[in-house]
């Protein structure tokens, strides 16, 4: 198998273990703070999401867009890029420390910006602020982890960045278990939370990120680099990096403003239906196939694509685009069909009552609308990054961010006008986000197609349509299993264990039927995909 295939398997295997352990972590967290209509859960979800927002800025923004292509170029230097990486790492550490200090100082203001004060009572805001003081130090360690990980990825050392989060999940699972032994759960009411409980839960959440980052440092020498503090930043190309990162920062600001609007709208449903933490949990399930499939296959392709773009081999870049989208699309359509049919049992894993699963399942369905478009966007957007173009992604992200904010406000207006119920608010916001993402990927594809003189859209768009058609009978077979099991309100939503078993059963049937039809049609992408899948199986 090619180096991309081996790297994809390595990343995919690590991502699977990471996500499964992450699911267990989320299940235990739900047992502590609750999910649907949990005011304490929404308070913790808001506080713990703040450092994640900044991590998104660092990881998917500056690092992926700017740093990886620059490190690939620096590898051609006489020292293999060691001096560049040391300067870059030192600069990044200083910036992260400053950002973390500012975030800690501004914690009360940041929390109040993200919620609607008419719906978040003062005691709920106070609890969220207390959690934020414990969670915001994650900013530094998330950023350090992202910086180290992207440097390793650029050096084609893919494994550690993927496997290190497992340690975080293990630490969290153990910590949450201790919390449940000491205090029990769930504790959805604000008055139940003592300073000791707040400190323990927040400390566990942050402690896992700290250990995760320290583990990554162990693998540093595998990249052939020597990490040394270097404050001589002249010559590192800060002006060039700054020019590229400037558009990326603007793009991230757009995303954060849109997320802020969403958060304030979602806070209107706190205590009455799916709100902040329920949306986060649904997004976690949505991101499971995205992380396992898109990141494991797409990350090695991005490194190769960056190398081809740096060398000016545009035809090879186009080939990378076609191959990656077709392979990603085949897997993603199967995952979308399986999760859509199994939305209730899959959601039941993260809820404490069958009624909560039925209320949260529409959230997952609305997110799934954009799973395939986001997979395509992953490739298209990173192709712009490979050509050091961050201005264009800002432009089409500006459109997406505007649509996300507008649809969220429209959802709130619809609820106030009585057109939707408060229990439907979060799902409506999620659907608006999906529609915005579809518009974004269409605009991005059109621009890139013109920029490169054609990216052979027909060679990947038609196979995606074929995969989608095959997904319909596969989903129908899965729905037949749901009906045989008593429907969405049957035993499949009885408890967390039956939800997990039912989701696995339904998903297996959908995937089996999907692959069977592709085999009958002799789909050309099937054989290399199965070869990739066999790499995950133990050898005899």
Task: Describe the overall structure.
With about 550 residues, the protein is an all-alpha fold. The chain has 19 helices and no strands. Helix content is about 80%, strand content about 0%.
Question: Which helices and strands appear, and what pairs or packs with what?
Answer:
Blueprint: H1 3-33, H2 39-74, H3 82-105, H4 107-113, H5 122-135, H6 138-154, H7 159-183, H8 195-218, H9 238-266, H10 276-310, H11 314-341, H12 343-348, H13 354-368, H14 371-386, H15 391-416, H16 425-451, H17 457-484, H18 496-520, H19 526-534
Helix pairs in contact: 1-7, 1-10, 2-5, 2-6, 2-9, 2-10, 2-14, 3-6, 4-5, 5-8, 6-7, 6-8, 7-8, 9-15, 10-11, 10-13, 10-14, 11-14, 11-17, 11-18, 13-16, 14-16, 15-16, 17-18
Main location: membrane
Subcellular location: Cell membrane
Membrane topology: Multi-pass membrane protein
Task: Decide which structural class fits the backbone.
Answer: mainly alpha
Tell me the distance between the termini.
Answer: 18 Å
Number of helices: 19
Largest sheet: number of strands, sense, barrel closure: none
How much strand? under 5%
The string of secondary-structure elements, in order, is: HHHHHHHHHHHHHHHHHHH
Mean pLDDT, all residues? 86
Characteristic terms for this protein:
single chain; 540 residues; mainly alpha; 2 domains; 19 helices; 78% helix; globular
Short structural description:
This protein is mostly helical. It has helices at 3-33, 39-74, 82-105, 107-113, 122-135, 138-154, 159-183, 195-218, 238-266, 276-310, 314-341, 343-348, 354-368, 371-386, 391-416, 425-451, 457-484, 496-520, 526-534. It is globular and about 60 Å long.
């Amino acid at each position: 198998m090619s180096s991309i295939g081996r790297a994809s398997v390595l990343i995919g295997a690590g991502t699977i273990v990471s996500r499964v352990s992450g699911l267990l972590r989320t299940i235990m967290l739900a047992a502590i703070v609750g999910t649907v209509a949990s005011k304490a859960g929404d308070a913790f979800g808001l506080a713990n999401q703040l450092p994640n927002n900044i991590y998104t800025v660092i990881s998917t923004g500056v690092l992926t867009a700017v740093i990886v292509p620059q490190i690939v170029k620096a590898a051609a230097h006489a020292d293999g890029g060691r001096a560049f990486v040391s300067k870059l790492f030192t600069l990044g550490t200083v910036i992260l420390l400053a950002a973390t200090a500012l975030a800690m100082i501004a914690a009360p203001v940041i929390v109040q910006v993200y919620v609607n004060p008419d719906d978040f009572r003062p005691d709920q805001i106070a609890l969220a602020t207390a959690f934020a003081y414990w969670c915001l130090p994650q900013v530094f360690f998330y950023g350090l982890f992202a910086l180290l990980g992207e440097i390793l990825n650029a050096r084609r050392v893919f494994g550690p960045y993927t496997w290190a989060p497992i340690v975080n999940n293990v630490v969290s699972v153990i910590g949450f278990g201790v919390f449940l032994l000491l205090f029990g759960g769930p504790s959805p009411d604000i008055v139940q939370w003592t300073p000791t409980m707040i400190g323990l839960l927040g400390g566990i959440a942050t402690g896992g990120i700290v250990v995760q980052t320290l583990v990554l440092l162990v693998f540093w020498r595998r990249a052939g680099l020597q990490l040394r503090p270097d404050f001589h930043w002249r010559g590192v190309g800060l002006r060039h990096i700054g020019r590229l990162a400037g558009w990326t920062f603007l793009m991230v600001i757009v995303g954060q403003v849109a997320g802020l609007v969403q958060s304030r709208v979602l806070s209107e449903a706190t205590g009455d239906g799916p709100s902040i933490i329920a949306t986060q949990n649904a997004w976690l399930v949505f991101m499971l196939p995205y992380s396992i499939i898109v990141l494991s296959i797409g990350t090695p392709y991005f490194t190769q694509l960056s190398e081809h773009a740096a060398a000016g081999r545009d035809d090879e870049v186009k080939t990378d685009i076609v191959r990656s989208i077709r392979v990603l699309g085949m897997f993603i359509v199967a995952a979308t069909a399986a999760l859509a049919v199994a939305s209730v049992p899959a959601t039941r894993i993260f809820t404490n009552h069958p009624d909560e699963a039925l209320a949260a399942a529409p959230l997952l369905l609305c997110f799934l609308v954009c799973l395939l478009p986001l997979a395509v966007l992953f490739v298209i957007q990173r192709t712009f990054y490979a050509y050091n173009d961050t201005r264009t992604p800002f432009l089409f992200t500006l459109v997406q961010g505007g649509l996300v904010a507008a649809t969220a406000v429209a959802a709130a207006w619809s609820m106030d006008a009585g057109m939707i119920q408060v229990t439907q608010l979060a799902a409506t916001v999620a659907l608006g986000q999906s529609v915005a993402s579809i518009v974004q990927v269409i605009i991005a594809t059109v621009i890139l197609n013109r920029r490169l003189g054609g990216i052979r859209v027909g060679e990947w768009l038609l196979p995606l349509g074929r995969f989608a058609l095959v997904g319909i009978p596969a989903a129908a077979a899965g729905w037949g299993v749901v009906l045989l099991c008593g429907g969405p309100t049957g035993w499949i939503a009885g408890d967390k264990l039956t939800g997990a078993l039912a989701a696995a059963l339904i998903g297996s049937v959908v995937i089996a039927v999907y692959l069977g039809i592709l085999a009958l049609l002799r789909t050309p992408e099937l054989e290399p995909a199965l070869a990739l899948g066999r790499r995950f199986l133990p050898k005899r």
